[in-house]
């Protein structure tokens, strides 16, 4: 163990009892907020307990781990600082807080470990222990609170008793209504049997009527056959007349065309070309307007236009976006919020999406549930996420539209050289917020 670690362990062992109890209470509360992968194995069985039970049962195990496991202590300190932001920031930055409880300050200092944390612990050791008189006053105050609680409990019991009486009366009413409903159901059954008998008689009448209709239908079909024969003969005669008229018209048109061709040859008229009379007027022609859109990279309209391209592939620099949008959230929360929002975007646009996170940020296996259509990749050991993004761009065929979302200038410039379009992280964040 190093000298610093020895000093920290010695100081932790000599913590004043109020400070030690407060440290264990804060760490036990933080234990329930941490992911299972960040909790040491001896403490995992306590994580699901209620806060008070967790603090009581895990004290014998939690204290030694806080003294020896700096990584776990820092994780617990991060959660405690989130729960007590104002006092935690003041202690971490060495800002004096005269009105704060010295025991609370010493407990936070022990977990956060600023440069002057040992002074805070020493100051807490100087706080006098409450006198027996204060204990008697506390006991008296608690007794008053107990009497008040008993009075409130008695009132609650009376209200519950009244509610039980009301429920009994309502139960009697419901039973009466149930009997009435059963009588109505019995009457409806009788009515149903009567109507079933009438329906069977009606079915016999329907069968007779159907037979009569079929006879009439056969007569109508025979009549339709006769009329179709007459109509065919009439259409054949009309078709012959139309064919004769068409032949006459075609003969007349051929005559006119031959006459016009002969007249052109006789007058020696040149064939029509591309030159028009307006082309002979002199003037300066305008230059062609530049093609494409010249909008800033964070323009939401430009982002929507790029997503509308056919077969577009959206590649996202994960932590570059999440640390811009939610800088104060834990990394696992940032990752899940991003992929969930991208799932909604994929459902709207039907596009291919790949999110790349830096694997160097991980301390163990990742628990992440990406929605359908969102591909998630972590860079392998020794490789940064920027290189994985460039590999993804190189893997695509030339001509496919690729959009890379990253505020990193180096990533943007390198992917543009490879043929991709680069957009800033704020454009994607604005699009997600608008969705």
Automatic annotation (TrEMBL):
TM spans (from-to): none
Keyword terms: Coiled coil
Record carries keyword Transmembrane helix: no
Keyword Coiled coil carried by entry: yes
Residue segments, region Disordered: 268-293
Domain of life: Bacteria
Coiled coil spans: 139-230
Protein name: RNA-binding protein
Species of provenance: Kribbella capetownensis
């Amino acid at each position: 163990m190093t000298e610093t670690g020895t000093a920290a362990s010695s100081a932790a062992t000599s913590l004043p009892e109020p400070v030690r109890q407060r440290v264990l209470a804060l760490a036990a509360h933080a234990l329930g907020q941490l992911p299972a992968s960040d909790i040491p194995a001896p403490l995992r069985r306590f994580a699901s307990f209620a806060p008070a039970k967790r603090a009581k049962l895990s004290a014998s195990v939690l204290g030694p781990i806080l003294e020896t496991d700096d990584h776990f202590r820092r994780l617990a300190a991060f959660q405690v600082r989130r729960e007590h932001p104002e006092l935690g920031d003041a202690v971490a930055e060495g800002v004096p807080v005269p009105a704060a409880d010295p025991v609370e300050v010493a407990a936070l200092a022990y977990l956060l470990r600023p440069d002057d944390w040992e002074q805070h612990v020493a100051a807490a050791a100087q706080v006098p222990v409450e006198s027996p008189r204060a204990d008697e006053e506390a006991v008296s105050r608690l007794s008053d609170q107990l009497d008040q609680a008993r009075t409130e409990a008695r009132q609650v019991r009376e209200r519950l008793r009244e509610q039980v009486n009301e429920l009994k009366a309502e139960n009697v009413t419901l039973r009466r209504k149930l009997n009435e409903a059963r009588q109505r159901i019995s009457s409806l059954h009788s009515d149903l049997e009567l109507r079933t008998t009438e329906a069977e008689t009606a079915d016999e009448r329907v069968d007779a009527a159907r037979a009569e209709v079929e006879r009439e239908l056969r007569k109508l079909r025979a009549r339709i056959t006769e009329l179709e024969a007459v109509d065919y003969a009439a259409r054949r005669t009309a078709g012959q007349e139309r064919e004769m008229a068409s032949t006459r018209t075609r003969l007349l048109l051929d005559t006119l065309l031959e006459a016009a061709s002969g007249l052109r040859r006789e007058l020696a008229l040149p064939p029509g070309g591309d030159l028009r009379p307006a082309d002979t007027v002199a003037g300066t022609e305008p230059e062609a307007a530049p093609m494409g859109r010249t909008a800033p990279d964070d323009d939401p309209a430009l982002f929507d236009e790029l997503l509308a391209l056919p077969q577009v592939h959206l590649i996202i620099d994960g932590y570059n976006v999440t640390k811009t949008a939610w800088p104060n959230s834990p990394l696992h929360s940032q990752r899940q919020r991003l992929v969930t929002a991208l799932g909604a975007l994929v459902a709207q646009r039907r596009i291919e999406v790949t999110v790349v996170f830096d694997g160097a940020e991980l301390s163990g296996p990742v628990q992440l549930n990406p929605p359908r259509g969102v591909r998630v990749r972590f860079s392998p050991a020794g490789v940064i996420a920027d290189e994985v993004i460039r590999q993804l761009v190189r893997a695509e065929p030339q001509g496919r539209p690729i959009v890379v979302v990253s505020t990193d200038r180096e990533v943007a410039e390198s992917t543009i050289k490879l043929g991709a379009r680069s957009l800033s992280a704020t454009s994607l964040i604005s699009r997600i917020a608008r969705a």
